[in-house]
From TrEMBL, chain A:
Cell compartment(s), UniProt: Chromosome; Nucleus matrix
One annotated Gene Ontology cellular component of this protein: chromosome
Pathway stated in the Swiss-Prot or TrEMBL entry: Protein modification; protein ubiquitination
GO BP term (any one): response to UV
SUPFAM superfamilies noted in UniProt: WD40 repeat-like (SSF50978)
Keywords of the record: Chromosome, DNA damage, DNA repair, Nucleus, Phosphoprotein, Repeat, Ubl conjugation pathway, WD repeat
Name of this chain's protein: DNA excision repair protein ERCC-8
Pfam families linked: WD40 (PF00400)
Gene that encodes it: ERCC8
Source organism of this protein record: Lipotes vexillifer (Yangtze river dolphin)
Quaternary structure annotation from Swiss-Prot or TrEMBL: Part of the CSA complex (also named DCX(ERCC8) complex), a DCX E3 ubiquitin-protein ligase complex containing ERCC8, RBX1, DDB1 and CUL4A; the CSA complex interacts with RNA polymerase II; upon UV irradiation it interacts with the COP9 signalosome and preferentially with the hyperphosphorylated form of RNA polymerase II. Interacts with ERCC6/CSB (via CIM motif); promoting recruitment to lesion-stalled RNA polymerase II (Pol II). Interacts with KIAA1530/UVSSA. Interacts with a subunit of RNA polymerase II TFIIH.
WD repeats: 37-79, 124-159, 183-224, 272-303
Function according to Swiss-Prot or TrEMBL: Substrate-recognition component of the CSA complex, a DCX (DDB1-CUL4-X-box) E3 ubiquitin-protein ligase complex, involved in transcription-coupled nucleotide excision repair (TC-NER), a process during which RNA polymerase II-blocking lesions are rapidly removed from the transcribed strand of active genes. Following recruitment to lesion-stalled RNA polymerase II (Pol II), the CSA complex mediates ubiquitination of Pol II subunit POLR2A/RPB1 at 'Lys-1268', a critical TC-NER checkpoint, governing RNA Pol II stability and initiating DNA damage excision by TFIIH recruitment.
UniProtKB/TrEMBL annotation, chain B:
Family: Belongs to the STK19 family.
Keyword Kinase: yes
Keywords from the UniProt entry: Kinase, Transferase
Protein name in UniProt: Serine/threonine-protein kinase 19
Organism of provenance: Lipotes vexillifer (Yangtze river dolphin)
Molecular functions (GO terms): kinase activity
Gene Ontology BP term (one): positive regulation of Ras protein signal transduction
Ranges where the record places region Disordered: 1-30
InterPro entries (UniProt xref): STK19-like (IPR018865)
Record lineage: Eukaryota, Metazoa, Chordata, Craniata, Vertebrata
Domain of life: Eukaryota
Amino acid sequence: MLSGGSDGVMVLYDLENSSRQPYYTCKAVCSIGRSHPDVHKYSVETVQWYPHDTGMFTSSSFDKTLKVWDTNTLQIADVFNFEETVYSHHMSPVATKHCLVAVGTRGPKVQLCDLKSGSCSHILQGHRQEILAVSWSPRYEYILATASADSKAKLWDVRRASGCLITLDQHNGKKSQAVESANTAHNGKVNGLCFTSDGLHLLTVGTDNRMRLWNSSNGENTLVNYGKVCNDSRKGLKFTVSCGCSSEFVFVPYGSTIAVYTVYSGEQITMLKGHYKSVDCCVFQSNFQELYSGSRDCNILAWIPSLHESVPDDEETSTRAQLNPAFEDAWSSSDEEG
Amino acid sequence: MNRKRHRLVPEAFGQKRRREGGDVEADPLRGESGSARAAVAELVRLFPRVLFEDALPPIALRSQVYSLVPDRTVADRQLKALQERGEIRIIQLGFDLDAQGIIFTEDYRTRVLKVCDGRPYAGAVQKFLASVLPACSDLSFQQDQMTQTFGFRDPEITQLVNAGVLTVRDAGSWWLAVPGAGRFIKYFVKGRQAVLGMVRKAKYRELLLSELLGRRAPAAARLGLAYHVHDLIGAQLVDCVSTTSGTLLRLPET
């Protein structure tokens, strides 16, 4: 797992629980510390692995740069400089025909940087204030969603020259309106964006303490109501959706806890308490079905699904190895096994 | 020793039973699980018409509907269906973009006609109520929609704004509004703060719902305690904790 901190340091962790204990610590494999010549000068806002393999990763920071790193040598492969601080960047997980990285900065223009050519010439105009979050659709490689402090969230097709496809409207007004300037997705800044894993729906959170679920093909507000989702972040909020569960969950940082809701019904399942200060970001690992969250108390916590816990037996004092039964071997070296 | 025990135990139960009698009215506040339509009808009955001398239609708030219908998504969808059928209008109350008022369309129409009777803008208002309201069930109206689809001219739109039926939202778009709602909003905001203050001043910042409803309403809460309590619960300005003595309202920690 790749993580970036507010001091500019980036660390790579190995998430495998090789000690088989119920409470374990993930070791850091390597890090880009303050002594590295190319380390970011200010807080690292967004980090992302190259979607196709772990040979490369990208990081963007408040020092107005987007840096592309080679993992094996931990050296910079490329740097993109911008005029304003960078809040968020994202590279499409399904793109095969393009290598564009969408970058959201403090300016109102969304920049698209091309990794192949090293230039950022493509700009998407339409927002009026800073762009707090960008996300590519996991379903279509040219569809991009952006969220801005001007209360608007827009869906773009980057091949189209004339402007955004849809501006999300929380009141689901009539689409015949020629002027979409009054459409707002939230009654405050729109802080975070997350597509569901199939790309058919989009979740947005805003500083009006609401989270909304949108149909990403026509921009309609599905009116699923999650209640009050406290959000005082002045930057983007990184939240995540589960992948591979029978009813998908959304994990949102809520103060110093993480709130878990079912995506399509809006019901709050639980609040995960463990951090001491406010949680800034969380991410879901679908292979292990684990959630990782980072907070202002300088900790990253791993949340693993709690399986059926066996009743402690008083007579045996055994330190039974805790292993997720999904990973247990059913393999036996005996020759008689059919 | 036996005599003492027999006397003490029935007394203890007796006291509880007497308190339960007073509670029955309060706890159905949380027990409603009907449709949104029934919830709006009930809330409309809580609205104090006498206070406004019948000049305002009875307004319920969306947050109040959430307190009566526990599943918010279902409540939202039912309200949207009612809105599309034309039975209710949703009004953006100016003070908080989140708070939306719900009014039955019939009430709205009769009151607005009564208020605008005899005024110079009566003609434009009647045309608006007859042509735009049934056709468009949205919260807001756009410039081109008003001029092209419904044939309103600019002076007529200005008359509608003067009448209080439309409020400016943005350049070229307007919210639907209730004429004379300013007084209601003033009482509502003050009342909300007053009732929230009652919970805040309590010891440990929490109050039993039954006790809150049993207290005398502060002078600022002119719309009635029950009206404000529904709104506070639905807007999640207080947390509802169910205890063995009934529902407890507690201020959230943040």
